[in-house]
Amino acid sequence: MLHNTKSATVISQLSNKNPIMVEAGKKAAQVRATATYTLEEHFEGKSKEIQELMHEIREFVTGLDSSIEEVPKKFYIAYKSSKNIVCMEAKSRNIKLFLKLKPSDIFNPPSCYRDVSEIGHYGTGEVEFTISTSDEFNEIKKYIELAYNKVGG
Fold first, then answer.
1. Model confidence over 114-147: pLDDT tens digits?
2. Looking at the 3D structure of the chain, how many domains does it have?
3. Paired strand residues for 80
4. Which of 16, 47, 50, 65 is deepest in the core (most CB within 10 A)?
5. Which domain holds residue 147?
6. Rounded Cα gap, residues 124 and 78, in angstroms
């Protein structure tokens, strides 16, 4: 055992990495790789209005192409074909949609739009739409279709 501790210390000194932190990072990566999340978890605790809007978004996005997969993650639901197209993060009062687009792709942005290219966030892409009604969702459907087409749908 003593020999292993010395070699770990030498490795630690050479790489400037704490072996305990390296192990913690490996464990966290394994948990992320094997953790499973359900769609129901994202619906829990949401108002009837938000749940209905979530269903409307799901139907629209998965209706673009039968190859689009719905992948529940810890903080959002990803919709992807070869790559993520849109990620839906349901909140208590609204839904954030992150699209695989660049801010330069958004012309005449609606008021629910935000450039998140310089902001850390869950999900994919550099644009965010925060919606709470079907009317707001209808305004951004064209951008979801654009993201789908850009990814190679």
1. 999 988 887 888 999 999 999 999 999 999 999 9
2. 2
3. 69, 84
4. 50
5. 39-151
6. 8
DSSP secondary structure string, the chain? Answer: -HHHHHHHHHHHHHHT--HHHHHHHHHHHHHHHH----HHHHHTT--HHHHHHHHHHHHHHHHT-TT-EEEE-SS-EEEESSSEEEEEEE-SS-EEEEES--GGG-SS--TTEEE-TTS--SSSSSEEEEE-SHHHHHHHHHHHHHHHHHHT-
pLDDT digits (tens, 9 = 90+) for 108-122: 899 999 999 988 887
Both 19 and 50 in a single domain?
Answer: no
- pLDDT category at 14 given cuts 50, 70, 90 is low
Tokens representing residue 126 in the block:
């550099």
- One domain for residues 109 and 125: yes
CATH label of the domain that carries residue 111: 3.90.1150
Residues 71, 58: Cα–Cα separation, whole Å: 11
Structure tokens at 109: 């942005």
